[in-house]
What we know:
Structural class: alpha+beta
CATH architecture of the domain at 374-585: Up-down Bundle
Distance between the termini: 16 Å
Radius of gyration: 29 Å
Number of strands: 6
Strand order of the largest sheet: 2-1-4-3
Number of helices: 22
Amino acid sequence: MLNLLLSLVIDTQVSDSMSGKRHLVQVTQSSSFQQATSTPVSHIPWSTALAETCFRILPMQRPKTGLLLVNTRAKGSRLRRREAHVWTVHIRLASFFSFGKYCLRNNLSANMKDEQRPLLRSAAVSCYAAPLASSSTSDNGAETRQDNCAASSSSQMPRIQLILLCFSRMMDPVVFCSIFPYIAAMVHRNTGLPVSDVGFYSGLVESLFAIVQTLALVLWARLADRLGRKTALVCSLAGTAVGSSLFGMATTLWQMYLFRSLVGLFAASNLITRTMISEGFPADTQPTAFGWLVFAANAGNFVGPMIGGMLTDPAQQYPDLFGSSTWLRENPYALAGIAVGVVSAFAALASLLWLQETQEAADGAQGTQMAPSELIKAPGVAITLAVYAQSKVLAVAVSAVLPVYLYTPARLGGMQLSPAEISMYMTVQGASQVFWLLVAFPFLNKRLGTQGLLSAIASFYMPVFAGYIIMNALLRSGGGVTREWLWLAVAPAMVSLGSAVIMAQTSVQLAVNDASPNAAALSGINALALVGNGAVRAVTPGAASAVFAAGVKNSLLMGYLVWVVLIVSAIVFRASVHWLPRQQDKSEGADADDSP
């Protein structure tokens, strides 16, 4: 690409802004631009709009857009004061294409239609269709990562695209969790095994989904790079629709194994939606977008079992509607599977019709793709994936231990809550997580940056885990501290503040995106992160539950063994966050100063 150096000398007379007078700006073009473009200066419409655009840019921090690298040197006081100033602006344009797109976005190309620029594309280039990061080579040969969608300080989030991506993301947990209400009964009906053996085979059917999904994620990353994100997402949703429908109609154990594996093979919506948000959304809106993505996944964990439970054996549950159907009596789980398949098919159709592609297959940077072994060796990738895995270990461990802790008698180290109280506790926790994800996280991420916020959350894990120990210790000590008093006075604050750690899940996702060596590696690095997540989900629940049971049964550390182990894990997590590669937060829109 042809790099140009455009020097503008702007004499600015700024009158009193309160008087409502217009700013008088004179722009003169240096000869370097004439020589570089071989175009007479008179043919270039340097309008007042361009002068006002320069005026808006000058007093602000340099935008991290990849289109302009702006350095300003002021002689005298700042531009917004009333005196006259002389500003020298050195604008380094990445290419004729970049300069043309910049002009088009600022409505400055009305008089340039007759000029032939072979690299100048259409002005209808949305932020959503722009790639996440591109590289422009500076004068010293270094590559500077730039965000193409942060050109303005008021970037707009593509809401329709976010809704479609959240809908697609929700299908992964819906498909995974929908069989939980009926899987044991289905195994018992289809096999005739004793009830004592049903649990083993039910667990195997459930695990096949996660195992096959984990093994197939790297393949889906490659397919998404070659076919395009949208095509891969539609294929993934269509495949889960077919697999879910067939699973509901399975009548033998081997059919259940086969169709559940088929569903896991096509369950790639988590990977692809993450990549599409990373590529297609303006950097300053990504924290909010990923917050909604996590919210959609949590909603799927609720919607999936609800569909499965409500539509299992409909001939018996709703005899007035389905009692006359012989097929539904012979296939009591078919309707639940078909319903999930229909929802997944609708998500595939909606994505096919309205979702925009973030990486055209023909324009994909396949030459810069990296093999998993090469990607792990890239600077900062290994430690970022390790931090991602550690955050998942903490989250999954708490999810597995907390319900048991709340139910366990106080003398053994628990809270001794009733099922109704546990349900209320979880409800308050879920509502609190929605607040932290959708309201607090975007603001805190903008103020602290991805790494700063992640460091704060990692530090917050330790007092949260210690709080569970303190609550049980207060119950054990007596002294007028009753379970009702603790439930009303301490538990609400604990559950509300403790839910803040959910923000770590979105923060580590942003850290993974920041660690990607280039835009073409986004799907690959997300695939590696999700492979690690699959391994964590397979091992951590059982391990955490075993540690909790050992501590309670043998009174190890007064029954607090699991919380002590988690506190130590949180300390390791906090130390690991410190070693993350330091990058300027993309939500700030700032970049390192790069003088020409």
